[in-house]
Every structure is written in C-alpha cells, then in structure tokens.
Amino acid sequence: MFDYETLKLVWWVLIGVLLIGFALTDGFDMGAMALMPFVGKTDNERRVAINTIAPHWDGNQVWFITAGGALFAAWPMVYAVAFSGLYWAMLLVLFALFCRPVGFDYRSKLENQKWRNAWDWALFTGGAVPALLFGVAFGNLFLGLPFRLDELMRSSYEGSFFGLLHPFALLAGVVSLSMLSMHGGAWLMLRTDADLHARSRVATRLCALVYLTAFAGAGAWLVASIPGLTLADGINTGGAINPLSKQVAVGNAGWLANYSHYPLTVIAPVLGFVGALLALLGAQLNRAGVAFLGSSLAIVGTICTAGFALFPFVFPSSLDAASSLTVWDAVSSQKTLGILLIVACIFVPLILGYTLWCYTRMWGRLTNKTIEANPHGLY
Amino acid sequence: MISESVVDLSRLQFAVTAMYHFLFVPLTLGLAFLLAIMESVYVMTGKQVYKDMVKFWGKLFGINFALGVTTGLTMEFQFGTNWAYYSHYVGDIFGAPLAIEGMMAFFLESTFIGLFFFGWDRLSRVQHLAVTWLVAIGSNMSALWILIANGWMQNPVGAEFNFETMRMELTNFGALLFNPVAQVKFVHTVSAGYVTGAVFVLAISSYYLLKKRDLAFARRSFAIAAVFGLASTISVILLGDESGYEIGDVQTTKLAAIEAEWETEPAPAAFTLFGLPNQEQQRTDYAVKIPYVMGIIATRSVDKQVMGIKDLIAHHEVRIRNGMIAYGLLEKLRHGDKSEANIAAFNEVKKDLGYGLLLKKYTPSVVDASEAHIKQASLDTIPDVFTMFWSFRAMVASGFLMLVLFVLAAWASIKRNAENKPWLLRFAVCSLPLPWIAAQTGWVVAEHGRQPWSIAEVLPVHLSTSSLSAGDVMGSLLALIAFYSLLLVIEMYLMIKFARLGPSSLHTGRYHFERDAVAHTVKA
C-alpha cells in the first residue's frame, strides 16, 4: 500500500491525532473536574457539573487508553522506554485516573456529605493531576530524558521522579493544566446555567490568561536557552533501523529548525494564541460556543507546536543523543503499521460517528432543577 | 544481569493487578448479556418489571464496571512500565491486538455505557435496547482482542525474529487472529463470564426468594439466570481451555504439569483425582487415579499420547543446546558479521533462540554455559507442578458444582417451584464465590503454567522486565495493593448495600422497602 517511510510518517500523524482526540474530549472532562470543587459551591451545583460529563467521560477516556495501545503497537520502543523510565510519573497519573471511574459512579450513591466531599476531591485529583503531569512530561521531552539503550535494545533510565521537576517542565505543566481547565470551563459554560455558569465564565477567563502567559513564557524559554537535537542526514528513513546507528547533533537551533525550514508550521503556535484569545473573548462576551471553539483550537495548536518542534524526535535522550527515539527508528515493522492503518481507517470514522450521535442525544443545559428532580437516576 | 528480586516483584505485581482486574471483568461480560436479554424481553412484552430488572441489575453492573475500568487502566500501561524489554521485543505483534481492542471494542463499550445509564428518557425503547446490546458486544469484543494477545503469548504463531531490529516481527496477521489457542481461550473465557453473571443474578434473586421479598421480580430474574447459566456452564465445560493444550511445547508442558504426569503413559492416560505432586523427587505421592479419563479430556481422543514431564525436560535440554548455538550466531550477526553463511546458519536454529535465552539467568554470555547451568535451565522449563495440579482441580470442581446448581435451578424454574425449595435457594446463595474461584484458579493454570516464559519458547520472563530497582517495584506493588484493596472494600460495601436493598433502590415505589414505608406513612 504505502512504502515504509510514508507509513512511519502517517503513524506520527495518527499518534498526534489520538493525542489531540484525547485532549479535546477527555481534556474537557478532566478540566471540568479540576474546576468542579471551586465553581460548584453546593452539592447540587457539583452534581450538575458532574452530570454534564457523566454520559461521556468513559468514552472520552478511551482516547487515552487507545493512545496507549497505539503507542505500544506502532512505537513499541517509545512505549517501553517512556513508561518504564517515567515510572513514578506514570504511576501517579494512573493512580489519579483510578479515582475517576469509582468517583463518578460511587459519589452520589450515598447521601452522606463527607462521603461526597471526599469523592469530589478524588475527582479533582483525577482531573488536575494527569493534566499537570502530561505537560510536565512534554516539557521534559524538550529537555531530553536520562536514558540510554544497550546493544540488545534494553533501555536503562538514570533519572528519578524529582529529576522531572525542572522549572521549564513545570511551566509546561502549567500550560497543559491551564489549557485543559480552560477547555473544561468552556464546557461547563455550554452545559450549565445560573451561578455555576457564572463562576465557570470567571474560571475560563482566568485559565485563558494563565495559559497565554505560560505558553508565551515556555516559547520564549525554548527559543532563548534550550538546546535541541538535530538528526544528521543520510539515514535510511525507508528501512528498518537500529536506533543506535544514527548520528545526532546537539545544537542551539535544534528545536526551532523545523519552523525555519517549513515556515507554514508557525500556524501551530499562532493557533494556540488565537484559540486562547478566542476563549477569553467568548467568556467575556458570555458566548459559550465561541469559548469552547477557542479552547479546542488552543489544544490543537499547542500539541502541534510541540510535535512540529520535536520532529523527527519523539523521545530524546539527554545522556546519549544517539539513543534518542525518532519516528524513523522507534517504530513497528512495515506490516504491522500497514495493518493498523487499515484498522484505523475503518474504525476511527465509525467511532467519530457514534460518539457524535451520543453527544447529540445527551445535549442540553443541565440545571439545578433537573438534578433536584432526579435524586437517584443521575450521578 | 537483572536482579531476581525485580523479576519476582514484577511478576507478583502483574499477578496481583491482573487478578484484581479479573474480579470485575467476568461479571461485566456476563451481566452485560443478561441485561441485554432482560431488556429484550422488556421491549417485546412491554412489562415494567423487566425494565426494573434492567435498571436494578444495571445499578449493580455499574458498581462493578467502575472498578473494572479502574483496574483495567493499569493493564493497558504496565507492559510499558514494568515489562519494557518485553514491550520492545514483541510489541510489533502483541501491541496490535491491544490497539485494535481500543478502536474496535473499548470505544464501543465505553461510549454507549453512558447512554445505557443516562439515556432512558432520551432514547426510544428500541434505541436503548440497541445501546445495551452494543455495550454487551463491545465488552465481549474486548475479551476477544485481549485473548488474541494472550493466546499469542501461549502459542506465538505468525511471527519471526529479526536480528537487525532485535525483536519479533509480525509475518502473518491471519495466523495471529486465528491462533487456535486464542480461539478456545476466547470461547472458554467469555462463557465463564456468562456463568459469573448468571451465578450473581441467581444467588441474589435466591436471597430475595428466601426472604420472600419482591417475588415477581426475583422469580423472573432467577429464571433468566438459571437458563442462561445452564447453557453457559455447559459451554465452559465442553469448550474447556485444555483443548488447546496439544499445541506447542509450552502448552504440552502445561498439560503434563496439570496432571502431574511425570512419565509418558500409554494412551489414553489415567486422570489423577488426588495426589501430592513432589517436584524434587519427580513423583506424585498418595495418587488416586481414574484410568483413561485424562487422555480423553486432554486430547479428546483415545489414541493420542500425553507427554510426561521427564521426557519434556530431556526434549527441552536439546532445544537449550540448540539455543546456545543460535545465541552465538546472533552475537556475530549483531556485531556486523552478516555473511550469507551466518544468516543461513542462524535461521536454521533461531526457533530455539528463546531456549538459549533461558541460560541468561545463569550466565550473561549464554554460549559459555556449564553443564550444570544447562541441566538447571532444563528443569526451569517446568512450572510448579503442585500449584498447577491443585489450581486446575479447584477450577474444575467449582465448574461442576455450578453445573449441578444450574441443572437444579433450571429444572425448578421450569416447574415454577424454586420458592418452595429453600435448600436450593441456599445452595444458590452459597455458590456466589464459585465463579470467581474458578476464574482465578483458571488464570493461575493458564499463566503460571506458561512459566518460565513470558512468550512461550521465545522470551523468558526473567529477561522481560524493565530496568527498575527492586525498591521501585516494591513501592508500586504495595501502593497498588493498598489502593485496590481500599477500592474493593468500598465496592463491596456498596454492592452489598444495594443488593440487600434490592429493586427498592430504584425508588419507584413498587418494591418491598418502599411499600413498607408507604404503609407506615399511611398508618401514621
């Protein structure tokens, strides 16, 4: 069907699509839960917030799970090196995510207020912690991670969890937390009314401002002082490659090289800014649709900004540049990539179709009255 | 070399997380179909009681499902976190069914489950019924894909080792899909899930019948569970997993260990009903045998032989020696000596490369292994016989007890006299743990029986781990056990609370506790 080189590129795009799909869908439910204890003052308001995402969070979360599965299948080396290296960060994300399925389903099963408050904070953790840590992980990609590969392709990681907390990475964490919270705030504006809606507007505005500052700051920092990697010419991108056989140069222009080679890619960071400004405007003018569109664009822009800067690298090493994993050498065989592409071409449109159907079926503003009338049927 | 404690701790962590996960999965598989059946009856008859059944059993389904999702998250990512070399070595094949599972099954199941719970007022009856069926189909499809992945670990077909990339690569997707081991595993496992769902509904309905509460509701639930359970139990027993045990060295070894068959016996072999396997002495103490039965169970024939453990060890020793040659050639190839002759020689013996890797436990360079190492590695190819022998018997005994239960329950349903048989109702209530005992011991047989391999004949467990410290894995293991146990306690609390409350928890005003409340209010 496609040659190996094209397939490798297609899978870079597809992994990006899965990540964006995850951030657009699961992003708003995580963001909404990160805001929930603050924008929802009463139990009823919190139930309204939770029930706007009740029918959708599980389907949304599958974007994350499928991204994990696709990473395993298409970039097994990245799946192996990243998750074992970032062991404690990954576990922290998982433990935070553990709180969600049980939190949603169990919270409102008992009337007890202490029980409900405890689950509210569990849901907050399940939203805020992964949102923060995904950004920290992305930030660390730019700094490189302390791993190397041996002759038999076994990776050893020489860092620790606390080593990940470099200020730049933390700033990247603020970018992603504020971005997803802005998205969640815009979602709550769309689906709620009264006080909860008003507080969600304030939260969306605040998160948009934080995002704009942090995104600009991280960009400036990257330009100013973070060295990037450059892949030497002459590697056979169309073949099966041993990652250790490549030549990698460490240079100052590294992470910006793609932007100067392909000026059109500058659209990505621009989209990040424009999107957040739109979200800010939407919240200001109380136009929830505009705000949600804006936060969605900001997400697409931000993820593309990172992807374009790093390309062709996907998991750079700070210890041994040659061990860095790229789209050319961390991938599965041509056969596997081809089969998975066919499966994706069939199922992704189907998934988008029925997901959309579910959203339209459940659409509408949730009010305090709906919740009060339904003490047992809803979350 | 990788420290033994990291390997053991990683194995323990996988076992704990997988076994926790499988407390919830079989109930999801079975209840999803029961819900779909109940709702179909509702749509066809229009009787409110069936809708109440879907809603009430659906509530319990939800409590269970939440923990299934929670514990499932770990499963998707821990190959990467804890089994990094495994992920690199076989990700090209093993990752594919996981990715497809996400796209084909998880999305379906998880997207529609929201509508199942919250869409009652927003969907037409038929639409909602379709949603429930899609949830059931989605959860079963996910079982299909994960068991294709697991079946490949037991019988790695359709793949070949590539020395350039130092990993296994997919050569035949069809073979992976139609792997006979995966096929029998799928049927056996989902049927076991249906049995779990049926026992669950049957036991709790029996409790209401014993308490003489909500009789119309309980009677109908009992009948549906009895019939569905009987069909499923027969399917589990007839389509037992061991029908896939003739294929490949590791499956054969598993079978010999299950039977504690030390010597190859003339066909059909006897079944050891009781015994205390003694691995050191390679014999079974106090054995009580039934002639012919095991040969028939294992090979579904009277003339095929089941190979004994001693012969298997000798056979594996030959493969280990071949594997040493393969490893030597691989080193040459990796160091750039890629002559035609080397490649040809390597291809000749590479099917035994995995056996050579077994020696890595004793010597990093493999080719210099001593005779003692080789002997020890050959003995390593046999899993713990005592565990295998007794896990299998616990599973089978639970299975047959459930068969008896469902035969009696189905008969009572046909005769419409279950309520008059308190002994049967008590038997049903006491049977509640049986499907879980069977499922857990069944997985012990399947996965402990795979030892010392993570991928049969290809990759030993002790090479599969991540480069973590024992402290890291110990820490995560303890944290997982603590958190999972806490969640399990909460889950059990809610489950018991709502099961006791019964359909009154729906707040329709039609059931036992509410009618009492109404009666009290009226009196007052």
Give a quick summary of the entry.
The complex is a heterodimer of chains A (379) and B (524). Chain A has helices at residues 4-39, 43-53, 57-74, 76-85, 87-107, 113-143, 167-191, 194-225, 257-261, 267-284, 288-310, 334-362, 368-372; strands at residues 147-149, 155-157, 228-231, 248-251, 313-315, 325-326. Chain A has 379 residues and is mostly helical.
Please, could you describe this protein's structure?
The complex is a heterodimer of chains A (379) and B (524). Chain A is mostly helical and 379 residues long. Chain A has a domain at 4-225 and 330-372. Chain A has 13 helices and six strands. Chain A has helices spanning 4-39, 43-53, 57-74, 76-85, 87-107, 113-143, 167-191, 194-225, 257-261, 267-284, 288-310, 334-362, 368-372; strands at residues 147-149, 155-157, 228-231, 248-251, 313-315, 325-326. The relative contact order of chain A is 0.16. The mean pLDDT of chain A is 93. In chain B, the strands form three sheets. A two-stranded antiparallel sheet of chain B has the order 1-2. Chain B has 19 helices and six strands. Helices cover 72% and strands 6% of the residues of chain B. Chain B has two domains: 4-244 and 386-448 and 469-477 and 485-511; 247-383, no CATH class. Chain B starts with a helix and ends with a helix. Chains A and B meet through helix 3, helix 4, helix 5, strand 2 and helix 12 of A and helix 2, helix 3, strand 2 and helix 18 of B. Chain B: It is a multi-pass membrane protein. Chain B: It comes from Pseudomonas laurentiana. Chain B: Keywords: Cell inner membrane, Cell membrane, Electron transport, Heme, Iron, Membrane, Metal-binding, Transmembrane, Transmembrane helix, Transport.
